[in-house]
Write a structure and sequence with these properties.
It is built from seven helices and no strands. The chain has about 170 residues and is mostly helical. It has a single domain, classed as Ferritin, core subunit, four-helix bundle (Ferritin). About 25% of the residues are buried.
């Protein structure tokens, strides 16, 4: 991991990728519930991005070093950082194009949200600034709520998943 890479810049890129993913996913199918949910999630990612922009300004004003430090970044976090939360650029478009059902889109979204929870949890631990820690911990809570929203939609479209989620068949 290169020293000096900004935690906040990295997080902003992840949120931009999330906005792109959810906007593309919302246009993929005619399902109104899916469009509504993914448009909402794209808006949530945009709010996260704006929060990071504000946090970056504050960090610069306080002269807080908000970069990854090789001594504080273990191999686990480094792997999370390299992998990212959402599929990268061209790979994202290709993956979304290959998805054939609402269930498939939901499964990919849930994986991305789980990645976000893991990443932001680790960034909260690695951050030395209280405000940054608080922001990452808040994002973890919000990403967990995203999983719940996507999971509910997935259960509506996938009887096997609903049975697994609720422990019974309908």
């Amino acid at each position: 991991m290169a020293q000096g890479k900004s935690i906040i810049d990295y997080a902003m890129k992840q949120e931009r990728d999330g906005m792109t993913f959810y906007n593309k996913a919302s246009r993929k199918f005619g399902d109104k519930e899916l469009k509504k949910l993914f448009a909402k999630l794209a808006g949530e990612e945009k709010k996260h991005l704006e929060s990071f922009k504000s946090l970056k300004v504050k960090a610069q004003q306080k002269n807080v070093d908000e970069s990854f430090r090789s001594t504080g970044v273990d191999e686990y976090l480094e792997a999370l950082i390299k992998e990212g939360i959402f599929p990268k650029d061209e790979a994202m478009s290709k993956q979304i194009d290959k998805l054939e059902s609402v269930t498939d889109v939901c499964a990919l979204a849930m994986t991305a949200e789980k990645n976000a929870i893991l990443l932001y949890s680790e960034l909260a631990k690695a951050s030395t600034d209280k405000e940054q820690k608080k922001m990452f911990n808040q994002l973890v809570k919000e990403e967990k709520s995203h999983i719940a929203m996507v999971s509910a939609l997935r259960a509506d479209h996938d009887p096997a998943y609903a049975a697994m989620k609720f422990g019974r068949f309908f």
